[in-house]
Structures are given as C-alpha cells and as structure tokens.
Amino acid sequence: MQNYFPLSSTPYQDIAKKIGIDRDEVIGRLKKLYEYGIIRKVGAILSARNMGFVSTLAAVSVSNEKLDEVAKIINRYSGVTHNYLREGSPNIWFTLTEANHKILDKHLNDIERKINNKIIRMPAKKIFKIGVKFDIR
Amino acid sequence: MLSLISDEEKSVLFEVQRMPLVPNPFSEIADRIGLNEDKVLALCSDLLSRGLIRRFGISLNHRDLGVTANLMVASYVKEDLIDDIGHRIATEQEVTHCYYRTGWDYNLFFMIHSDSKKKAINLAKKILKKVNILNYRFIFSIREFKKTSFELSKQLSVSKE
C-alpha cells in the first residue's frame, strides 16, 4: 500500500479486503511499522512546488569538529527536508523549502550568520526528473 | 500562489498528511476541522487531481530497506546541451532525480540510489559516457542528518499568504 490508500470512508477496511486480512490487523500492523521506524507516515505526500512553495539545494563547507553543531542549526528549520553529510567540499548539503523567496532567503541568511559560513545556493532552473519510488512486495 | 489555496483546503492538506489509524479516518479529520466526511473526501480528490497532493500512501524511512548508496553526480554541461542531456539522463531507470541548477561550478545534477557504492559508480560512469559528459564529480552521502518529506505546518495551514 505504498501507493494505495483509497479515498473512501473505510480505507483500512478496503486495504484489508484487498490483501485478505481483517481491518484491525491492517491498523495493528501499521502501528507496529510506525513503532519500528520502518514507515515515516501514512497519509498524503504533498507537492510543495504545486502548492506554490519555493526551494533550493544548498551546501556549505564545515570542519569535522563542527559538523554536528552546524547540522543541528540547519535541521531546526522545518523547511529543511533533506540534510546530508557528503564527501568532499562542500560537505553539508541540504534542501530548504519555504512559502516564498523572501522567507527562503531570510532563512538562508539566518543560517549563514549563525554558522558564520557562506552557503552555496543552487536553485533548480529546470527539473528533468523527480521522485523516488521503491517497489516493495 | 499560496493564496490560491483556500483556508478549507489548507486545513485538509494539513490534516491528511498523517491519517489517523482508526476505522473511519476521514470522518475523524472532518470532525477536527468542522466539515463533513464527504466534503473532506471530495476536497482530497480535487487536491489530488490538481497535483497539490502528490499521492496517498505510506512514506518509508528508506535507509532501513537496504538502499544504502546515495550518489549525487554533479556535472557540467554546456548551456545549449542541457535540455537534451538532462532529458536523456532522466530516462535512465536508476536515476531518481535530475535537475538543471544554477549557482555553482556544476549545473546538471542527478541522483542514483543503489544497494552498493560500487554499483552506483559503475552505473553513473555508464550514463556519463553515454551522454558524453567529461566534467563531473561524484558526491556520496556519508551520513543522514535529516530526511523527511515536505510537510505543511499548522500555522501555514490557516494563514493567508
């Protein structure tokens, strides 16, 4: 049901019927999967872009001893959806999504000030492909 | 853009991001925001068709599923070739994302997820050769500090932008 969640009054019942178990077992299994951290959420995945939000990829070079501190400062912004330590320089790479350019720039400037380091801003000019989908059977 | 979304829609968008694990989840959401269940379902299907909701389903913490190598390839392509090469790279099955970006030494970015680093490198090299890109950099992820899907916050769901 990675991509199956019926828009009906009884979605879990519908899923249960489809896979041949009962409704409470579907709900119970989902609760367990949450608990184990296998699933992040059940529900709607929104398209920030189609909602009119703006975003950018950003990167900054940070020394090893400051990695955790800087990552924490960046992660505090709810518009940060991805944040990775990567090989080479720059080494911290994150994406920031906000309601408009003004807020986006403000948050990037804020982060720059807090970490005292210049952030490379790499907004997308064109998207050729987007989306990860893993088939699980 | 955000102003095109009504307050009613914003409330629905906010709530359906995490469906309650109860027999009638849409009915519970309807109660929370003061609409009826049919209205919530109708709004959801409209938001889906307009693409504001990308999909309904489960989001996985994919690190737990054996997808370990996350390779970002940053490459440089001449401006007039970007469209053509970008589209060609995007057709490769193992490429999950492909973007034309500004602001750095490289302008064409793509991502490859694989179960091993070696496989990812081989794949990337094959693709780069195919489209004749010579200037590139492999940037593997070492650690994940944060990975989540975009979520609408409560404040924004009721504010007027």
List the topology elements.
The complex is a heterodimer of chains A (137) and B (161).
Chain A: H1 11-19, H2 23-35, E1 39-46, E2 54-60, H3 67-75, E3 80-86, E4 92-98, H4 101-115, E5 120-122, E6 124-129
Antiparallel strand pairs in A: 2-4, 2-5, 3-4
Chain B: H1 7-16, H2 25-33, H3 37-49, E1 53-60, E2 69-75, H4 82-90, E3 95-101, E4 108-114, H5 117-130, E5 136-147, H6 154-158
Antiparallel strand pairs in B: 2-4, 2-5, 3-4
Helix pairs in contact in B: 1-2, 1-3, 2-3
Structure commentary:
The complex is a heterodimer of chains A (137) and B (161). The longest helix of chain A is centred in the C-terminal third of the chain and has 15 residues, at 101-115. Chain A is elongated and about 55 Å long. Chain A has a four-stranded antiparallel beta sheet with strand order 3-4-2-5. In chain A, 34% of the residues lie in helices and 28% in strands. In chain A, β3 (80-86) and β4 form a beta hairpin. Chain A folds into two domains: 1-45, no CATH class; 54-122, 2-Layer Sandwich (Alpha-Beta Plaits). By secondary structure, chain A is an alpha+beta fold. Chain A has helices at residues 11-19, 23-35, 67-75, 101-115, and strands spanning 39-46, 54-60, 80-86, 92-98, 120-122, 124-129. Chain B has two domains: 7-58, Arc Repressor Mutant, subunit A, CATH 1.10.10; 62-140, Lrp/AsnC effector binding domain/regulation of amino acid metabolism (RAM) domain (Alpha-Beta Plaits). Helix content of chain B is 37%, strand content 25%. Chain B has helices at 7-16, 25-33, 37-49, 82-90, 117-130, 154-158; strands spanning 53-60, 69-75, 95-101, 108-114, 136-147. In chain B, strands 3-4-2-5 form a four-stranded antiparallel beta sheet. The chains are: A alpha+beta (137), B alpha+beta (161). Chains A and B meet through α1, α2, β1, α3 and β3 of A and α2, α3, β1, α4 and β3 of B. β1 of chain A pairs antiparallel with β1 of chain B.
